[in-house]
Amino acid sequence: MIRYIIRRIIYLIPLFLGILIIVFVASRIAGDPVRLMTVQNPHITAESRQALSEYYGLDKPLYYQFFLFLAELFQGNLGNSYALRGGTAVTTLIGDYAWLTFELQISALILSLLIAIPIGIMFFYMGIIAIIIFAYFLGWVPAGGAHSILAERYPFGSYALDGLWHLALPAAVLTFATLAPVVLLVRSSMLEVLRQDYILAAKASGLSDRSVVYKHALRNALIPVVTYVGLYFGGMLAGAPVTETVFNWPGVGRLFVEATTKLDFPVIMGITVFITIMTLIANLITDITYGYIDPRIRLE
Amino acid sequence: MKKIKLVKPKPPVRREKNRSKGVSQWNIAWRRFKKNKAALAGALIIGFVLFLAAFDALIAPYPPNATPGFYIGEARVAPSLKYLFGTDYVGHDVFSQVVYGARSALYVGFGSAAIAMSIAVLVGLISGYYGGFVDNILMRTTEIFLVIPFLLILLVFLKVITAVVPSGVGGLSIVMIMIGLFSWAGNARIIRGEVLRVKESEFIEASKALGASKRRIVFRHIFPNVLHTIIVLTTLMIATAILVEAAVSFLGFGDPAAITWGQQLQKANEAVKEAWWEGVFPGLFITLLVLGFSLLGNGLRDALDPRLRE
Asked: How far is B302 from chain A (nearest CA, A)?
């Protein structure tokens, strides 16, 4: 098992490097970031552009910049923002927003795995409709944000309850949007597993239906579900900009939209790297879970 | 080695009259498709939106971007007989704008799907048939494109390109091309899997034994046998592309010069409280069209896949 895990980790390294290269190319494809940021500024002089380029190390050759970026990355440093909060370190920015993104995504993931009602519409439209109905017409929950601004508005004066109250609507909508595939998947893979011979053998040896379904069938039926959950987590993190814009949720997704609007490349690259690492970790956990559920996979 | 020249046998002459009533694969598929009510509904929705897009100028009561409500104090009024879906904050007739949005949605949907599927088919066929080193390189690249946070990269590319290219130059086409270039990976992997399955068939073995070239085997024998998968994936890809364009426009990274449903949603999102109709109707059309393509795709899968035949 440990050998299997190590193999999976080694396998991720070229993947990660490849993505870093694409991210780097994406941020430099149109040339010097300083020129891009100042293209609509008529007052800037060539000297100040030059000074900015030197300050951010953008005057060095591209490959040098890339290796510098890599070296800094392995020391856990993602550089400083160009435009947000007066040049705060990108890691600090991500640290401040990441937890809120996780709070939303993880609560939705857990809820959608716990309950099962098949509905499948595009979630950001569902979000808008839900805000209109539940926040404006019914007034049950707040329309956006992660916390009330004024302490007087906390339900029963509790900060934690206030957080939950704000979380309710976005988590519910995300849950409904992701439920349908999970339900369909569990059902179809369960039906497939129940047709197999070893289930018949288990039944023939006199085991109760309950024991057959939960002990023997479920374990094998869960493999596609594990795949889905792994993919889902990466996909939802990448979709965070949309989710968080709909619900005005102050997480990394909205930070990313803001940074992209301002062409703040250190923040853009930092968040992309962060989400990529999270996705890769999710994939790794998926692979390890596979190995745990199905011993045959370990030996491949 | 002496090359053996193969003489192509003449096809047997068929007389239509005496031919026993055979049913083609497409006939079987069509029969199965007809029985699927959900898929027919999907086709109907797509037909309806195609109709809107084709005759938008005749259907919409006002010209594109016209603001009939602006000068007469009818900005942001609720739906009525005069304005079927109400008007927005500057007095655009929401119904007209929704009708004009149909063309953009279909353009991006079909265009992106065409680009993504061309790459996916090529990568899938080559990777699946040739195997070995080529397969390894292509699949590792595919994996990178699968793991990469696609929406984030897309937003950055769009922002950077719009900062360089002067505004108004092929905005919607850029969105379309970008979506296409970044969403082929999953499809390529599925097609490769299908190719691997077909490759083991006996008729491929027979064809090899007859001395057919690799290219002939790939394009004449394998391609038609994975075509049903490609058709299904294309349909679902169109749905995804429409959804991605809506999301991109919703975040404000779309083409500001084009009339798209996503952009209408974005503008409406600033005022959901005052004017629900601004967002509800464009969103309803996105949902309907995406649902239409998904239903059609799933219906086609049931109809075309020979393994699902009972």
From this structure: 15
